[in-house]
């Protein structure tokens, strides 16, 4: 195993607030690594720095051994790091299939539309994109809604489609941000199965922030716990659940059985 993402001594301040305080962590290639912690622990801030939403105040972030500190999200995308995003308003009128196709054809989304004016090339590009998009819709079990406008899909189906858009880009690491929020159990199960099979069969690495502890327990090993801006502990979820420091951080010393 080797390290895909390494965060070294990273601090992020917002004025007088130290949201992330001299933290180091690693996401090893081929893992589904979870990041958990009580509200205000600094998880989102950590994620935003790794995803290139903003730069750390100090410290270094390495992606596959390369210093990517302060690079923007689109630059990290070129390096193979992708984050799931809510489907933008202008894409809600495209069908599920079209939402995937616009990611592949050309590098960015505009180039697909630009390509519409280059008719000779578009035909081959479109066929390839369509084939790939249809395969992904099948993996996501969304084939039956491929011609539905994205705006009409259920919350869970939209989350699957967001993951599909990420898959079209063929990244090496995917940041999953609170995917369970608002998703019903059946679709959440589908989503978890897709993540597991992408990890097992395609070797895709995931870095996951999640409040749903059942999902974390099912998918993630290791799990990293942050509290009050610090990385507190990391390990398998079974150990994390029994760790007295973690229980203290979540529940202020409540009985161990509540840490589930
Ligand atoms: N843009 C900002 N400006 C000022 N303070 C911020 C900003 N973003 C985060 N913070 C503060 O930094 C700390 C960590 O916040 P962060 O959102 O990273 O925690 P979190 O672990 O993701 O919490 P939650 O689980 O509630 O989303 C909090 O005290 C928060 O109020």
UniProtKB/TrEMBL annotation:
<protein>
    <submittedName>
        <fullName>ABC transporter</fullName>
    </submittedName>
</protein>
<dbReference type="InterPro" id="IPR051120">
    <property type="entry name" value="ABC_AA/LPS_Transport"/>
</dbReference>
<dbReference type="InterPro" id="IPR032823">
    <property type="entry name" value="BCA_ABC_TP_C"/>
</dbReference>
<keyword id="KW-0547">Nucleotide-binding</keyword>
<feature type="domain" description="ABC transporter">
    <location>
        <begin position="5"/>
        <end position="253"/>
    </location>
</feature>
<keyword id="KW-0813">Transport</keyword>
<dbReference type="InterPro" id="IPR003439">
    <property type="entry name" value="ABC_transporter-like_ATP-bd"/>
</dbReference>
<dbReference type="GO" id="GO:0005524">
    <property type="term" value="F:ATP binding"/>
</dbReference>
<dbReference type="Pfam" id="PF00005">
    <property type="entry name" value="ABC_tran"/>
</dbReference>
<dbReference type="InterPro" id="IPR003593">
    <property type="entry name" value="AAA+_ATPase"/>
</dbReference>
<dbReference type="GO" id="GO:0005886">
    <property type="term" value="C:plasma membrane"/>
</dbReference>
<dbReference type="InterPro" id="IPR027417">
    <property type="entry name" value="P-loop_NTPase"/>
</dbReference>
<comment type="similarity">
    <text>Belongs to the ABC transporter superfamily.</text>
</comment>
<dbReference type="GO" id="GO:0016887">
    <property type="term" value="F:ATP hydrolysis activity"/>
</dbReference>
<dbReference type="Pfam" id="PF12399">
    <property type="entry name" value="BCA_ABC_TP_C"/>
</dbReference>
<dbReference type="InterPro" id="IPR017871">
    <property type="entry name" value="ABC_transporter-like_CS"/>
</dbReference>
<keyword id="KW-0067">ATP-binding</keyword>
